[in-house]
Write a structure and sequence with these properties.
Elements lengths: L14 H20 L3 E3 L4 E3 L2 H11 L1 H21 L3 H9 L1 H25 L4 H36 L3 H36 L6
Antiparallel strand pairs: 1-2
Amino acid sequence: MEQNNPHQNQTFMSIRELTISGLLAGITIFLGLTGYGFVPLVVMNATILHIPTIIGTVVAGPKVGILVGFLFGLFSFIQTLRAPSLMMQFALQYSVIADAFICIVPRICIPIVVWLLYKYIPGNAHLRAGVSAVGGALTNTVLFLGSFFLLVGAPYAAAKGISVEAVGLMIMGIVTANGIPEAIVSGVIVVPIVMALKKAGWKMK
């Protein structure tokens, strides 16, 4: 008699992963639709929408993180349609495809960095969660703004009558002004949540 291969019965995501994805996706959707996940600044919006993505990755693994990260990027794209910052308004007018890429692809990359950091850096769970949260937040900021510079930096400079180098310096300033506080906030929020879940008996991936 032919025996069933247990691997054939495995689904892409377990019930646990789907449950966590649904919960964090709900939080992401709420923050995205209400605008509470964005802090409007002069030229760019700061965000805390990356935090559910980081938590999902640490708690349930990269598949959950990628799904929640995609939703984060999707709602970031929706935000550019509803109330864009000055830079993203230009990206949207220049190319909808470029705008969607800038909003979505970097956010899918967040869980990859978070997972690698959490899985492979030495230290206790507190340290690994903190470093992963900071790394995930910086990944979000650097890839998001880096994608903007690579895809629409030159036309943005031409439209504003400034040099490409000036746009690069402006983006570096935003990385410093937004990225560092976002990274700190991520560590402050993610670590106690992950530790509370661990203490409650949640098995980390």
